[in-house]
Amino acid sequence: MLQNLLQEVPRPEGTQAEILQSDETAPGAIPEQAPRDCVLVLGMHRSGTSALSGLLHLAGCAQPANVMPPLVENPKGFFESTRIRACNDDILQSAGSAWHDWTAFDPDWTDGPEQADFHDRALETLTEEFGAAPLFVFKDPRICRLVPFWLGVLKSAKCQAHIVHIHRNPLEVAASLQRRNGMSADYGLLLWLRHVLEAEASTRGQSRHFVSYNDILNDPVQVIDATQDALGVTGLRGSAQGVEVFGDFIAAELRHFSEPVGEVTTNPEVSIWVRRSFEILESWAASGEIAADHAELDRIRAEFNQTGPMFAGLVQEGRELGAANKKLASEIEQAQAAALTQQSKIAQQLEAIRALETAAATDQAELATTRAAVIQGQHDLTAAQGTIAAREGELALAQDDLSKVRADVAQAKAALEDAQREISQQRSRLDGQGIALAERFEEISRLTLLLVKSERQREALTKRLAASDLHAADVEAHRNALLLSTSWRVTAPLRRVVTALRGLRRRG
């Protein structure tokens, strides 16, 4: 939602002279431009000018191109131009002044030769920072003392100035300056008075509106609506679109100092000038500007200007003392920081010592354990050496046995080689015997056939004998003839083999 409320601002290129001069205009002539609106925020340092400028930016006002980055003192940002701030510092310095000068700005400076040069520089810087934005917010607390100068620059830039004055409880401002800049509270009140009086007097007759810092914290949306109504500025986004965003931007916890209004208006230790100026500004912020109050503000400003030189020396001395106190406070702070750093280092060293002591105790325990282990190891080593000696004797015997075994293995290898040669020879003989055996089996087969033939003849003869009436003498003659026959003689070896086989069978 925040991005939707931000307005893109086109920025022209080139210098101020190039922007103002076109092809249709003669050199040195200023072309007609559409009127532009500038919301000029005026207020003392630490009075909420950044918060108000941020709200106006969220409401639709363009911010400068070179914005000051946020700091711890202003985490939401400053919404002011670094270049315009530098220009204002240079202007104040050229007049012998500074942002923290409580005295009136030199009125003769506006008629001096430097004014014209600064006018051209300011006009060019303004254009480069805001371009052709139709509506932009312009802020720097230093402008409170340089209002006439910047109103002239805005007029040259064809910009209509709409002025918003913002003020804050002067005691809160003084406290903030004291913490940030080391200023005394009284000196902070003088600065507050100078800024609000000069800004108010220099803007009379202009389009202007007054708000308080408390109003912004309490109801930022109402502040934007009231500002738009009072100044008649078109294009601002108020309650219709900005409630949530404005509320997120304004954080009450960013307010580090808070003082009741009564602490100023009823405090006798606060100057009557400060009390009455604050009361009038509070009244204007609540109910609107009252012209009758101008006279009293003029009187306060005149008295302030008249009496200023009388105690300027005292103030200067106070400033010097304040600067010395600030320097001393800074040195004390640095010394305290150094002491804290040293204490932290000492604590770290003590912690390191404790860690070393713990580690040493652990190491001693481990050393005692190691010593015991070493002693036990020495005993074990002695025993191991005895065992090793015994094992060495056993090893010598084993080596002797091994030598014998190796000799036996060598003999066995030789015997094996002899056996292998014998086996080879036996295989050769066996191969020859196999051939002979095959021939023998052939012979046996042939003889077997003859035997079978002879047996058949014998059986046939036996049958004939049984069937005939031959005498025994005839049988014997036939038997003898058989035994003398060639078949009987040839089968004789076979019969022996058969007889032997029958004997083996009976024994088995």
From TrEMBL:
Highest taxon of the lineage: Bacteria
Keywords from the named record: Coiled coil, Plasmid
Coiled-coil spans in chain: 395-464
Keyword field contains Zinc-finger: no
Keyword Repeat among UniProt keywords: no
Protein name: Sulfotransferase family protein
Species for this entry: Paracoccus aminophilus JCM 7686
